[in-house]
Amino acid sequence: MFILRQAPRLRPYIYTAGILFLAVWIVLTSANRKPLIEQITDRGYLRVVSLAAPLSTLDIDQTRTGFEYQLATNFADHLGVGIEFIIAEDHQHVFQALRDRRADIAAANLHLTPSRESIYQPHPSYRDSRSLVIYRKTQGFKRPKSFADIKEGNILALDGSAEAAQLLSIKPDIEVDLLEELNHLDLMTLLQNREATFAVVPSDLFSRVKSYHPELAKAFEIQSDAPAVWYSLKSEDQTLNQAVSDWLEKPESKRLIEQLNRDSTPPKNPLNFVETHAFRMALEERYKPLNPYFVEAGELVGLDHHILAAVGYQESHWDEDAVSSTGVRGIMMLTQATAEEMGVEERTDPRESIIGGAKYLRKMEEKVPDRIPEPERLWLAMAGYNVGFGHLEDARILTQRGGKNADRWEDVAQFLPLLEDPEIAAKTRHGEARGSEPVTYVNNIQKYTQIIEPFRRLNQNRSIKLKPLD
Q1: Which residues contact 95 (CB under 8 A, 6 or more apart)?
Q2: Which pTM was predicted?
């Protein structure tokens, strides 16, 4: 991580000289060239520079995705050409790729600023955003409502970002730590780790991920709109800009942007602060080497590997050496009898444990009547996985006697805890059981399944690791 301590009075002169030089250079080098759009079609592919970030471009399980990736790919399809992506290290390198003419377009969740418009051509905006000052909620720390309330502490911003430019234009004498080779999620982690007091981030990103950082909150907005735009190198040739404008006005492009905005908004994180911190720590420290085993097991038994991973987290927090007081052990916390039944020789071997647990869960699901639709059948199977299939059937009978739907998990979940009552349990076939545990078990797995992929996407390109709680 590189930090550039801001020198507010010197930097404007450097920018002015650089802008004048680039303006002359652009004019001289733009002569005798084919129109930009014709250069792209002749070449046969569009060159796009982007960032590895949630609203830009991500590589997940060997699949490239992300808002900007999908949007730019659609534009290339509209032009009838292929596409080549350059993944830059940070904002500065994004614009360097434009200046070096290695990219036609910068699509990296960039935001409009006056300083950029003097050198680069902004294309029409496709998403509203503002710059936010955020902070870590701490007991006794009062939320600042303006810069006047910030009396001490450091402010972080990404060097070359729109929000840094806005901040310095509004408060030119303010001291800011400008960070290179990091992303906005790294700034949030630094706040979480108490290595900074404030950070400046775009609202379109923070609004999407704030539930995954429950200890962070918005302090106030920097009063200036900064919509998301693509950039190209400034030129008198407006053919590329016109092509982008025409494409963005197409009804199908507008529908695509609406869909991408929905898809890029992860489901709300249902975990509290402590649970979120523990989940992310386990994801950063333990999950990555286990993911191929969950994928393999999912393909083997025909179950979503995210659900299997959620079961593994609920069972052991992905700790291959986990052992309970009852003797179950490993990632999937298998009993010795279950391990032998599923062909698992070493319960603490991650791959064996995960595949064995997946087979056992599939076996439990096959015991649930196949007339029951998914996902109800799977949730009932998980309850049987946790408490035992006999006790699950007892609870389903109680559910039916109570006038509820024995094929519906939410109804059965109301009757499972009754198995803890000795008088009620005595009238069942399999007797007393800790009926509240499978309810908590299934509810937790549902929560972890919902957020494991969003968390993986958010953690994919972080450089700063989360620190343990004090």
Answers
A1: 106, 116, 119, 120, 160, 231
A2: 0.79
Q: How far apart are CA 99 and CA 160, in angstroms?
A: 14
Beta bridge partners of 136: 216
- Residues labelled catalytic: 315
Contacts of 340 (CB under 8 A, 6+ apart): none
Q: How many independent structural domains does the chain possess?
A: 3
Residue 254 belongs to domain spanning:
33-127+228-263
Mean pLDDT by 10 residues, the chain (470 residues): 49 54 55 84 97 86 88 98 95 95 97 88 94 92 91 90 89 88 92 94 93 94 88 94 97 96 89 93 93 96 94 96 93 95 96 96 90 93 91 96 96 97 96 96 94 86 84
User: 48: part of which helix (H) or strand (E)?
Assistant: strand 45-51
Q: Are residues 100 and 156 in the same domain?
A: no
- Please report, as a single letter, which amino acid is at residue 144: P
Measured CA angle at 351 (ends 350, 357), to 5 deg? 90
State phi, psi for 392 to the nearest 5 degrees. -60, -45
Instruction: List, in sequence order, the alpha helices (H) in 52-105.
Output: 67-79, 91-99
Q: Which of 207, 238, 263 is the last residue of a domain?
A: 263
Asked whether residue 208 falls in the same domain as residue 154, the answer is yes
